[in-house]
Structure formats: structure tokens, C-alpha cells
Amino acid sequence: MKHGYRQSALTAAVTAGILLSASQAYGAGFQISESSVSGLGRAFAGAGVAGDDLSDMFYNPAGLMLLSDERQFQIGGTFISSSGKVVNNGSTQSFASTGGILTVPVTGDDADGGEDSLVPNLYYASPRFGNFRYGININAPFGLATDYKDGWFGQFHALRSELTTIDLNPSVAYAVTPDFTIGGGISLQKADAELSQAQFLGPGLPAGEAKVEGDDTSVGFNFGLMYAPTADARIGFGYRSKIEQEVDGDLKISIPGLAVPDAGATATVELPETAYLSAFKQLNSQWGFLASARWTKWSRFDELRIEFDNGLPDSVTDESWEDVWTFSVGLNYQATQKWDVRFGVAADESPVPDAEHRTPRIPDDDRTWLTVGASYHPTTNVSVDFGFAHLFIDDSEIDNTIELVSTAPGAARDNIRADIENPDANLLGVQVQVKF
């Protein structure tokens, strides 16, 4: 029986490990919104048509034509600090026996899986060549991490989860008429994932540990349209395609006193497409109004299917995520020639449908953004931007069950029932723009 428990590590750990390749972040699901510090200050309202930094090319490549004619460079980063205590609320393990199902309570400490992270971005835009311009940006569109301490009550569901994505995106824009611009680009995206969790070896036995690492590089595309009916108003549509990552993972299992060979697994994960509809209106010489609606097709994350290289059957995990919307509005205010100020608010839906599909790896729920930002222009060619956001995240519950022995469904299960208390996040960003 112990052999069956140990063999089940491949299914349990790699399933969770490949899930990490689509892990938690501070947009809906595991999407990262923080591709602009200027945008952070207004809750990303007007994304792609704001016209005050190079990040427009990420959300809508047609926005490249809004920039001044010079060559431009921009570099920035957003520091994210998150928290949310996961509190045991009746978690249990159940075991099949000759007398029926034996259910016992799960013990262990409560834990906070929040971890501080830095999300960087970098942009370059060429000089304008008549009606044409090109640019390139490097972003992290998906990712971040959770980290729980050893021995916590949900240790068989998650210990450490970390995802890093790097997206290299050259793009071009062309002004068809003075009022109408189109743009498009190619995304080359690399994903690296790492996961660890406690390894169940049998009732009453000390836990081992399983760690999974995986990576892949894939290609997608983006395009955008922008229409400016007047000199002080514009509307734009931007689209970023899904990117299919075929993640190859390596599993390492640590069991005291036993050498376990590494194993491998492969899963195909579709990172979802996203569409933006944004608008900008200059109200007067000092005030500008911006608004955006973002749609993300998270229903692509319907199930997670893992293929194994050692003959085990596929592992299939039901996710049943839902498509979501994010709505934001913001204001720009030109206080002086050297200072601009921004304000914003956003409502961000979670794709996780219910407590049964919520896990400690992705303890996601709806959130509200309140943001403020500023730009300082020491010279006509240099701008330093600042942004701050506080995220109010709804309290939520987890009621998720996993098989502890995948080769014998129903033989041993772990049901984590938990409350996520006082979840929130603070984001602080700084960037520099240079024209030359």
C-alpha cells in the first residue's frame, strides 16, 4: 500500500506543478495587469489610448502613433506586497476501510501564502517615419507566487508555487488616415514554473516533499485599432491572442531514507486571450477622463490534463473557470508644467466559480482597485512616473478535495475547508521615460 501512495506522487505533484504554469497574480485569475506605472495611477483606465507613456503598445499597438516623434525608451517596475491568512475551518482526511469511510480532522497551523514580488517592464519606440512607427516591449503578463510554511494544515495542496513569464513583443503601427490607426505585433513568451508540496506517504507516516519545475516558449500575436474623431478624444480596441504553452516538467520527490528517480510529465495549457476597449477625452486644459473595459477568456481553463512519461493514465483536474470583465475609470490632472497627477478605480472579477474550485495555489476572488499616481518632468525629454494602488479583495472560502492516492481513487482524500481572511495587496511602481 505504501508503494501506491509513493507512486501517486507523480500524478498529485505534477498536476499541481503544471497548474502553476498558470498561477496566481494580481489581475483576475493569474493575469498581471501591471505593465505601466502611469497606468497604475489611474487603475489602467484608457489602456492603449492614454498617450502618456510607451505602454500603449502593449495594450493596443496602434497607440504607438500617439507618442511624440522622437525615439523613446522606458523602464519601470511595480513592487507588489500581498497578504491573506488561510484559516482552517474543518479540513478533513478520509480513508476507505473495511468498516466504511474513516474521516479524521486535519491539524496544523494556519498560514499566509502572500509573497512580495517585483514586476518589471521595458519599452522602446522608434522615431516616426511618416505614417509608420515600430516598437518593442518586454513584459511579464502572467505570474507571481504563493509560499506556505512547512507543516501547515493544507500542506498536501500547496507549499511553494512560483511562475515567471517573459513576453518579448515587437510591434508596428500605421496611420491609415489622420483619424484612424492600425497596429499589430508578435509575442514570443517564455514561461518558467516551480512548485513544491508535502508528499503523502500513508496514514500516520511523516510527509515527504515533491517539487516540480517546468518551462516552455511559445508564440502569440496582438493587434489594435484606434479612432480619433477630434483632437481631444479617441477610442481604441486592443486584442492579445491566447498563447498555448506545452509545458515539460521534471518531478523530484524527497522521501526520508528512500531514493526516488525523477519523472517527467507534459501538459498543454492555453493562456487566455484578452480584449481591451478604451476611451480618452480631454475635458479642458487640465483635466482628462479615461475609461476601459477588459475581457479575458478564462473559460479556456476548463480542465487541466496531464500526460505522463512512465505509463500512468492521464490526470484530469476540473477547473471550470469563467470568462471575466474588468472595468476601470480614471482622471488625469495637469497640476503644473512639471507635475501631472492621476486617480483611478477599477472593479476586477475573479474567474474562480466557487469554493470547490478555489485552491491555496490560486486563492482568487473579486477585487476593487483604488489608485493614485503622479509624473514629474524635470526636462522636456525626461519623465519620472510614480503609482500606488491598494486592492480590496473579497474574503472567500476554500472547499477543495484532492485524491492523495491517484492510483486508487477514493482510497484517501484530503478536503481543505478554509476561510481566507483579510486578503489585500499594495502595489507601488516607479518608471522613467526618456526621449532622444
Give the secondary structure arrangement, pairings included.
Blueprint: H1 2-20, H2 37-41, H3 56-59, E1 72-88, E2 92-97, E3 100-105, E4 111-112, E5 117-125, E6 132-139, E7 143-147, E8 160-175, E9 180-199, E10 208-230, E11 233-240, E12 243-254, E13 263-271, E14 274-282, E15 287-296, E16 303-308, E17 315-318, E18 324-334, E19 339-348, E20 367-379, E21 382-393, E22 396-403, E23 412-435
Description:
With 436 residues, the protein is mainly beta. The chain has a single domain (2-435), classed as Porin, CATH 2.40.160. The protein is 6% helix and 57% strand. It has three helices and 23 strands. The protein has helices at 2-20, 37-41, 56-59; strands spanning 72-88, 92-97, 100-105, 111-112, 117-125, 132-139, 143-147, 160-175, 180-199, 208-230, 233-240, 243-254, 263-271, 274-282, 287-296, 303-308, 315-318, 324-334, 339-348, 367-379, 382-393, 396-403, 412-435. A 14-stranded antiparallel barrel has the order 1-5-6-8-9-10-11-14-15-18-19-20-21-23. A hairpin with an 8-residue loop joins strand 22 (396-403) and strand 23. 48% of the residues are buried. Mean pLDDT is 87; it is low at 1-26.
